[in-house]
Amino acid sequence: MSNMNREPKHTISVLVENKSGVLSRIAGLFSARGFNIDSLAVGETEDPTVSRMTIVVKGDEKILEQVEKQLNKLIDVIKVVDYLSTPRIERDLCLIKVKTDKHNRSELLQIADVFRAKIVDVAADSAIVEATGDEEKVEALIRMLEPFGIREMCRTGIVAMARGGKSMSLQNPE
Question: What is the pLDDT of residues 11-54, one digit of tens each?
């Protein structure tokens, strides 16, 4: 398993037909080859008949190249892009519910401010922090919030887009 940590992290975007069963077929390609998906985010694109999947996976480049070729053969797959060597913007959204009281709320507000996070809910004994950023920023915020006591957390997974003029859009292909 320690070898997996040295393998490159691939962020792959896949445009697919917005149909039932597509997600399971694509996830199956990765699991059948022993790849653990670190992050998976799926949503509609500017065209409601097309969904965009962003998959983050660590793995050997040669094997992952084969997975990409097989993805391209699936009838519901429109386009596949591996952002390994592409300058890109990546974002992760996280909601974190932490224990709070009147004594530590101001500290929580200061931490949220430093990370440009928002407090989106406050109760007598808890608060929910919303953070958006790259994976390292979100991980750093989580570490700062651990002393409060994390009650619950959920993350969207990574979404990514190439910087500059490159586009996966169906209207403006690369």
Answer: 999 999 999 999 998 988 888 888 888 899 999 999 999 999 99
Rounded to 5 degrees, φ, ψ at 137 are -65, -45
Cα-Cα-Cα-Cα dihedral sign, residues 174, 161, 83, 65: negative
End-to-end CA distance of the chain: 36
Cβ distance 133 to 89 under 8 Å? no
Taken in order 68, 36, 90, 153, is the CA torsion positive or negative?
A: positive
Distances (CA, A) of 105 to 95, 110, 130, 142, 149: 17, 9, 15, 16, 13
Q: Which residues pair with 77 in a beta bridge?
A: 16
d(CA 9, CA 12): 10
Whole-structure pTM value: 0.81
The secondary structure of 54-91, three-state, reads: EEEEECCHHHHHHHHHHHHHCCCEEEEEECCCCCEEEE
Rounded Cα distance between 83 and 171, Å, is 20
